[in-house]
């Protein structure tokens, strides 16, 4: 059995209707004001930014999104008994919804399916918070301590969870195959994870529509659409 680590980025979820916010047509690229909503300092300082963030979460694509064929191919790969770990830059929770075990998924940038209190750190489901927004609270506060609530994602200006990061590093060092799927590999730590895996002897396979800075050190680069390329790659690894 070959140990396989799969790093996923925005490209794996675009077929599920979740836009690539940073891409050339992305929301953050077109609208600098939208970027304030995902920047920690603005979010904490300005109630108007928070109200806008809650309205965006209400209308956002994550709650409606369904896993696509690529997410399901990874879940099927795990179900057949293959040692697999998923390291994702996405916050949409679609790997778990597709059926990948919770403990096999590392969410580098957190999850948009939970909220966290910025004061007491208590977590609760996003759906509960959105119900409160629908009921008229435009900036719902923590029920335990009154603190500011935010989605459990890593905003600009926040550090990644060092425990998650440490686990991702050790997976990259120990894996035999490292698939980078739908990631531009421009954002850290995703970029360095691919490099670390290659340096520690993993076979590096990059599946991405656009060239990445790591194509040269990859053993294989696939430009086909993820929905066809990933199931075929995983079949070959069986
Ligand atoms: Zn609290």
Explain what the structure shows.
This protein is α/β, with parallel strands linked by helices and 238 residues long. The chain folds into 2 domains: 1-18 and 66-109 and 159-238, Rossmann fold (3-Layer(aba) Sandwich); 19-60 and 112-153, 2-Layer Sandwich (SIR2/SIRT2 'Small Domain'). The protein has 10 helices and 9 strands. The protein has a 6-stranded parallel beta sheet, sandwiched between helices. The protein is elongated. 36% of the residues are buried. The mean pLDDT is 93.
Determine the strand fraction and express it as a percent band. Answer: 15-25%
- How many angstroms does the end-to-end distance come to? 8 Å
Say which CATH homologous superfamily of the largest domain is assigned.
TPP-binding domain
Which hetero compounds are present in the coordinates? zinc ion
Mean pLDDT score: 93
List unreliable stretches of 5+ residues.
none
Output the radius of gyration.
18 Å
Nutshell version of this structure?
With 238 residues, the protein is an alpha/beta fold.
What tags apply to this protein structure?
238 residues; alpha/beta; Rossmann fold; SIR2/SIRT2 'Small Domain'; 2 domains; elongated; binds zinc ion
List the helices and strands and how they pair.
Elements: E1 4-8, H1 27-30, H2 32-37, H3 40-45, H4 47-59, H5 69-79, E2 84-88, H6 94-98, E3 105-107, E4 110-117, E5 123-125, H7 126-134, E6 149-153, H8 162-174, E7 177-181, H9 190-199, E8 203-207, E9 220-222, H10 226-237
Parallel strand pairs: 1-2, 1-7, 2-3, 7-8, 8-9
Antiparallel strand pairs: 4-5, 4-6
Helix pairs in contact: 5-10, 8-9
The structure holds zinc ion (ZN).
Zinc ion (ZN) binds near residues 120, 122, 142 and 144.
């Amino acid at each position: 059995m070959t140990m396989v680590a799969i790093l996923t980025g925005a490209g794996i979820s675009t077929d599920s209707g979740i836009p690539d916010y940073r891409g050339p047509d992305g929301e953050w690229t077109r609208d600098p004001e939208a970027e304030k909503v995902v920047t920690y300092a603005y979010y904490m300082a300005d109630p108007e930014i928070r109200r806008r963030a809650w309205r965006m979460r209400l209308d956002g694509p994550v709650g409606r999104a369904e896993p696509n064929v690529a997410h399901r191919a990874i879940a099927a790969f795990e179900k057949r008994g293959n040692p697999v770990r998923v390291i994702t830059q996405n916050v949409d929770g679609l790997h778990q919804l597709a059926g990948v075990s919770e403990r096999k998924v590392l969410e580098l940038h957190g999850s948009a399916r939970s909220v966290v209190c910025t004061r007491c750190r208590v977590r609760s489901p996003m759906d509960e918070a959105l119900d409160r927004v629908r009921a008229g609270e435009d900036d719902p506060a923590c029920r335990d301590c009154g603190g500011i609530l935010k989605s459990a994602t890593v905003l600009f200006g926040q550090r990644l969870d060092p425990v998650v990061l440490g686990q991702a590093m050790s997976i990259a060092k120990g894996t035999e195959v490292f698939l980078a799927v739908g990631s531009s590999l421009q954002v850290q730590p995703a970029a360095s994870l691919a490099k670390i895996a290659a340096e520690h002897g993993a076979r590096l396979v990059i599946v991405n529509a656009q060239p990445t800075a790591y194509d040269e050190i990859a053993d294989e680069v696939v430009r086909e659409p993820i929905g066809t390329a990933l199931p075929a790659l995983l079949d070959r690894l069986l």
